[in-house]
Design brief:
Elements (H helix, E strand, L loop, with lengths): L2 H27 L9 H21 L8 H24 L7 H29 L1
Length: about 130
């Protein structure tokens, strides 16, 4: 394992665990149900996907150097596909997507996307 990929993985785990703790704490403070809306699954799936996508990009960095942006977009498409295949059917069971359901998916998705984008940006800028 390369040091950069390992550092990203550890950082991603730490950041999403911290955000999950804050998310659960906020739900507790506002007296909302803590572990409903597939919140744990959402954090695990998003964490797994950002690690896989970063890993694929990292390991393909020399062979597809000029196509890394397109591969990153393909990774984003994969995340949307997972949402529509795994989460949307669960959230649409009652024909309503509540704010709690939306935030249960969107917060880890957004944090993962930001972490992924910042990390890839730094990494790609160092390559030039």
């Amino acid at each position: 394992m390369n040091n950069l990929f390992l550092r990203f993985t550890i950082t991603a785990i730490f950041v999403l665990a911290l955000v999950f703790s804050i998310h659960i704490t906020a739900l507790h403070i506002f007296r909302f149900p803590l572990f409903e809306n597939e919140i744990v699954l959402s954090y695990i799936v998003n964490l797994t996907l950002i690690i896989i996508i970063f890993g694929v990009l990292y390991f393909l960095r020399t062979k597809f150097k000029n196509q890394l942006g397109f591969l990153f977009l393909a990774g984003s498409l994969l995340k949307f596909a997972v949402f529509f295949i795994v989460f949307q059917p669960i959230y649409k069971l009652d024909n309503i997507t509540t704010k709690l359901e939306f935030t249960a998916f969107f917060i880890p998705y957004a944090v993962g996307l930001i972490l992924e984008s910042v990390s890839l940006s730094k990494w790609l800028n160092k390559q030039d």
